[in-house]
# Entry
Amino acid sequence: MPQAARDKLHLGFLRIVATEAGYVGGMLVTNRLGRPLEFQCTTPVKANRTQEILYGPTLKPFLFSELIGVTLIDRLQVKPDIVLIDQQALLDLRKHVSLPIACLLEDAKDSHDLPDESRVSLGAQSLQVHVEHTCDVEAIQQWTGTIPGDADLREPLDRVREALEETLRSAA
Amino acid sequence: MTPDDTLALHNVSLGMGTPDVPVTGMNSALRRLPKVETSETGVTLRPGFVPAWKPYWPKPKTVALTFPEGIEFLPPKRENDDRELKSIAPPVAKSDKDRSKPKRPTRIKPPSDALSLQDRLFYVLQPPLESWLRGQELIMPFEPFPYQYEGIAWLFSQKCALLADEMGLGKTMQTITALRLLLRAGQARRILLVCPKPLIPNWQREFKLWAEELPVTTIEGNGSRRRAIWQIPGSIILLANYELVVRDFAEMQKELSVESGELRDGLGRVRRRRNHETAGESHSTLDSQLSNLPQFDLVVLDEAQRIKNRESTTAQVIRDIPRKRSLCLTGTPIENRPEELASLFEFMGVIPPAGSPDIRQLSRLSEDYILRRTKDLVATDLPPRLDRDEIIELTPAQRIAYEQAEKDGVMHLNEMGEEISIQNVFELVLRLKQISNMDPLTGESAKCDRLVADMEEIAASGGKAILFSQWTKTIDWLADKTKDYGRLVYHGGVPISKREPILDQFKNDPDSHLLLMSYGTGAVGLNLQFAGYVFLYDRWWNPAVEDQAINRAHRIGATESQIIVSKFICKDTIEERIDLVLRQKRELFNRVLGEGDNDNASLSLNANEIFGLFDLKARTKKGDAKPIGPKAADVAA
# Structure
């Protein structure tokens, strides 16, 4: 891959937080060095009692992926090449979008429990891809030389969390 | 259907009587048997109410923030790309102490005056400075100290700021790095940096060291050339000295010849309203005033105490430079009176034009807009500074000359009576200080003897010393006496082009042990942290200036294990009396800035104090002696 294309790598960092008003999602798109390019966040989404009963255990994956995740990715003007998450419930988002999605694993030990075709390393982290989309491993591996080996990919997700807190504070 | 649900058939008799026939004649119809038909209907068992539910979810609303594109810089050209490969040391494992204390990343916080959510999110979403600066995007020659990271983050987020770190803590580096980040983040595209003339080479050097990729254009040359440089739209960082900025902007403002309307400062605020204006004129005036002057996203004032006097031309012209952000740098935000801060705050846009905040308001504003750290607080790894007052006995010839000069001088002043001005007293002080430095008749000097003795020891140990004096004449005279120590001379009389080579030689030549400097030229901005000794050959009027001088050596990166500061004070002379006053001043200075215990008293010698150095008494007509004090005009000055 030419250097110019490598430099244009855009990373998406998606996180959803639970608040009293409902779930709020935030997506930060950065360049390969972590500098912010675009941020989108949703208004709180809350299921009513009927929805909670009828969706049962599928409610959270539905809200996270189909409702919040898809909306955020649709609205982005700067499209990411990879979406990084640290919530397993968001992995199902991959079923609804055509972008590689990878979940940061807590520590290296977690990655040993996974089959080789579902895990990949990027920066300083081990990542897990959706079990039905193991082709994402290859898609992510092509960027490994573009991201510094000591890059902490968890840190931008903390920024998303702080930005969501700031948004909620200002809305209060 | 269950057995219980079977239908039962019943016979129903339909008895018909013979009704009375009413007169209306409808009798035939009433006699006819009713026709009964049956039809089969299903039995419903479903409940009567069926709730409908469709899985419809409205798409959540989103809030968007896009970040402005920053300026991309080409990597600096290397003169020789075939650089030799150097062997590097293997990484050293972190000690247990380092491991136990992971560094907390420095995050950029939204400024207190950022109200909109977008503004606040812009800062919250910036990466931690450590990873931003450690990345491949910005190469830093040295790892900044934690307090410097904090300073950079603060400067990045403030629209108006006064960085008042004590001298030697790296204001220059923090500023350059903040400018770098602002340019990269698209927050600034054109920056003006104003500094005293002697510091231009220093800033050029520091830019090259800390931000080699940033193009810096120095404003110099004749008027037309300077005008062209001011107007070049593509120049990103302009570096200029105060004198040229004031001259050029005063001229440009004059050419605009605004006849009517509101006059506005560089931040677009109404500065003065003319009596005959009409409302409609004000905006057009503003437009014409601002659009024709060079515009800046940020104006940085180094040694910002230059604009401490609000009414001075320098302060007025600089306040009118069109800009969006304002940054002041000074180690001494208060040189004389706390009110001087008001002038800096007006430039920063913190107080309205001509606003006069009281001490309490100034103190409150300081909390939001001033960042001041002292060495004691942040740089525990700085070498200790040992101050020692070297009390020196005058030589016999000096003593005779001194006493005679003081006696004659005081007598002369007394004879002048109430006519004397502060200038007359000042002249006597200077005369006595010069004799304390050296007897002009015999050339004897107890201070020089002490200096030579000290230098013997310093040179023998390979050390380096800086000496400060008020007079270039004294420096030139000392240069003759200290030839053996490879002395170098750096004062206002040395052409600017020759100054940098002198500093280089002092740094690199092992035979150069002494640098003779004047307070005016050498006290500010220079980095001489490789010198372990500082001599104050004579004393300046203001302790803040003396501190600036001392901190040329006592600063971050100091290579010596300790910095020894020797203050030469001749016993039983005017110097001892001045030292006492300065000592008291220094205590006051610490109280005002350190603890917010503000005081209106002047920190440099004021007129009363200068008169108080001598016991001046005028003879009245009755023959009595009456103390002489400064005139009202002198006190005001």
